[in-house]
Amino acid sequence: MLNHLDSLNTGKLLGYLLMFLAVGGAILYVLWLLGAIPFLDPDAAVKTTALLVMLFLFLVIGFIGYVAATTKPPKPIKR
Predict the structure, then answer these.
(1) What pLDDT does residue 20 have?
(2) Distance (Å, rounded) from C-alpha 48 to C-alpha 34?
(3) Mean pLDDT of 25-32
(4) pLDDT value at residue 1
(5) What is d(CA 24, CA 64) in angstroms, rounded to the nearest whole number?
(6) Helical axes 10-33 vs 42-70, angle rounded to 10°
(7) In this structure, is the dihedral angle defined by the CA atoms of residues 38, 43, 48 and 50, taken in order, positive or negative?
(8) Do 45 and 29 meet the contact criterion of CB atoms below 8 Å apart?
(9) What is the mean pLDDT of residues 16-33?
């Protein structure tokens, strides 16, 4: 008899792993933010989140600029 995990393809297994990590990360983040983890500073949670959000925003803006600067203009449609 096949094990349940043997019947899952790699994409589904990766999807389940990502869902598990997302839930675990969210729980750890909330505990960190509420000060339930004594060796982590709750203020650092806010600062780290703000830093990551801004870095992601600048990454997206930079990527859009790169694509706009390096994409060839489309050829005109001849009728």
Answers:
(1) 97
(2) 15
(3) 95
(4) 47
(5) 32
(6) 130
(7) positive
(8) yes
(9) 96
